[in-house]
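[Q] Does anyone have a clean structure-token version of this?
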Amino acid sequence: MSLAQALSTAKQEFIVHTPLEIQAKMFRQIKEQQESGITYGRQEGQKAKDFTLKNALGETVNLYDKLSKGPVVLTFYRGGWCPFCNTQLKSYQKLLPDIVALGGQLIAISPQSPDNTLSQQEKEGLSFEVLSDTNGLVAAFYNILYDVPDYIQNIMEQAGMDLAEYNAMDRWVLPIPSTFMIDESGIIRSAYVNPDFMQRFDPDDILQELRKL
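[A] Here you go.
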């Protein structure tokens, strides 16, 4: 099953099992971001912002150190609690040998705490770098961080999800799901930024972009 098919299945399950009132609020958030007039994300041709973050084992990972070894596929996701994110990461894990064969590296970033990142990496069997973006600073560098609206906070709290606690911070913030293809000189060669969290950058497109680098 392709990633697009898996995401479509996840969306249908969401629609079938989620009360209409909650669905309406989720789709409201997507529409508000799509129609905000804001240009989210760093753009193709811009320099990628350097960063140093810790992985699930507490080791520091620096973007430009990684770029000295080859191009980087940099993807931002919401967290291990998001089924669409988990579907994406599992698909990218299957793609990893092809990424490596093309000389590329894969880095995934979310605002979740290191403990939750480690649990997710172990559960999903992810062998690429999965980093914790404490306080969402790197997502802010890439212009994809946003404050979670009150009406979405209420939905999550009613479901027993305290996002601030899960992310070990004092704010309810998330990144817009995004994937940036960065060449060895640190230039963003393509940027996929989509407020619709039910959609993600397709694996075939990742390989196509990597072949250009």
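[Q] Thanks! Anything notable?
[A] The beta strands are 52-55, 60-62, 72-76, 105-110, 129-132, 145-147, 173-175, 178-182, 188-193.
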